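hey so i finally got around to running both of the ones u sent me last week. sorry it took forever, my laptop kept dying halfway thru and i had to restart like 3 times lol. anyway pasting them below in the order u listed, first the sequence line then the structure token line for each. didnt double check formatting much so if smth looks off just lmk and ill redo it

first one:
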Amino acid sequence: MDPAPTPDAASPVGILCALPAELGALALRARGRRTALGLELLELDLDGTPALACVAGVGKVRAARAAAALLHHGARRALLVVGTCGGLRQRLVPGTFVHCTTATQVDLAVRAGRDVEAHPELRSAWRAVAPGEEGWFLTADRPVLSLWRRMRLARAFTGACVAEMETAAAAVVAREAGVPWAALRAVTDRATPFGAASFRVHFPAQAGRAADTVPALLARWPRIVGAHPHA
């Protein structure tokens, strides 16, 4: 593989989701396409800001592969993860936006380095254009479908927390590459035994909502896009 390009003012923003519907209306703004690591990358022009978007597929391995492909092909100004999630608090009803403060691989036995903090200014700017909760994103390779597992996870983390399957893996890739990242998801279910049914009901309406806020974020916050994390 060729050396990854270094970030500059013209570098694209990377946008990553698991399922095609989670790309929302951004899919209609594709101006070109390229292939990397077996994945299709969509070339976007978001009101003057170049972006590369990728539908990674479900799970941590696929998310890490997609994040690596995006960064290698120049999306080093920022990495944005969008999609849906299961709420682990009663107040996180379907339709709630949740911004990630920290993503963690909850099914990883090695604790060192598994927690990854989102870029605070990027998160704050995104929350300004897409108001919602903020809290932990608990990334695992299996959906939370049992009441016992939901309660165990909820007890282990304070404040708002959601279950999902990609964010921490993509965030680790961004962190190791020195690329700022943030994540926004819309709740589709309560991560319970009835979560699969709730997901099917609410996913069509919630899938693309997070992605659809990205142009407003980039219009509001052009200064920090391209800065070093925690600058």
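and the second one:
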Amino acid sequence: MSFASIATLQHEIGRLDAQGLRRRRRTAESACAPHVMVDGRPMLSFNSNDYLGLAGDARIASALQEGVNLYGAGSGASHLVSGHSKAHEELEERLAAFEAPHLERARALYFSTGYMANLAVLAALAAATPGETEIFSDALNHASIIDGTRLARASLTIYPHVDVAALETALAASDARTKMVVTDSVFSMDGDIAPLPALLALCERFGAWLVVDDAHGFGVLGEHGRGALEHFKLRSPQLVYMGTLGKAAGVSGAFVAAHETVIDWLVQRARPYIYTTAAPPALAHALLTSLALIEGREGQQRRAQLELLTHQLAAMPLRAGWRRPVSHTPIQPLIVGGNAQVLDLAQALEGQGIWVTGIRAPTVPAGTARLRITLSAAHTHEDVARLLAALEPMNSEI
């Protein structure tokens, strides 16, 4: 038997090229900000998830340097061996207090990434009742949730996007001992918000967990930036909340907050937590400063700026065939149609020094390729006006 793996991979990469689906990395040469150097060129970026503009904040950078001086560059081991530092402990206590208004007897657990957190939660909760768990997942959930449901080895029902009635029917028909409804709060490609109050009502009625991935809501939604739970004023012991800390918080990592028993179970059974080296303590130390900024008056001002920029962008006229889903979040997609169309549009913008990545199928459904325009509180009204001015003639040209 001949070894053809390299040739096979080359053939498949060629097919991606032919379909306009090959992914290519760009190299940013400056700190995350609206104005960046990319591959040697100055660009105005509408790409990052740095929603509050904290990734390049000097106060957080100073706290990170202080953390390195206190704890060094790395943790050296997993949390359950010797890698759990005072900085990790302080951050988890602070996060638990931050989300406590929405969770009974809240505790929090810090993860290296949101991807790992979702894998951990879904697999660990399913492990409590092996063979007797059913997961109900929104059709547009993030890839990390999809992979978490696979790792859980549980029965899986995918309900149509934000279709509460379909979910109700599926829950009523389930005889699983453990039921889990899992959803993004803010969907990363459309920017719409899940109907969490209705989902929680169903979970309480049918005795199910509601696992909320608030990756794009934490820091942005709610008066104090506590996220989707604060936005909807929810509280329940059946909530399991995941927030990421590398988006609006501007640093790195993620956390799960829930009833203390849930967190204890994750420590015992969540393999993505147990069997990985703990994130550098310096990151946790820096996040304490980030949380203070999110919660305080400055955080409120940054969220207000985001809202103003969102309204400004919404005034953009659309050519026939383009559409913009209703979104009240910093994620403002512009759907243009085919993969080739969105690549042409992104390239035309790049020619004017504006960097907006085209998102193509299969990441989004075929025929809905889009510019995923993301706003940051660090953007100015002049930045948004420049984007609108660049797009205006393209309404008829592309």
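quick thing i noticed on the 2nd:
The chain has a mean pLDDT of 95.
anyway thats it, ttyl
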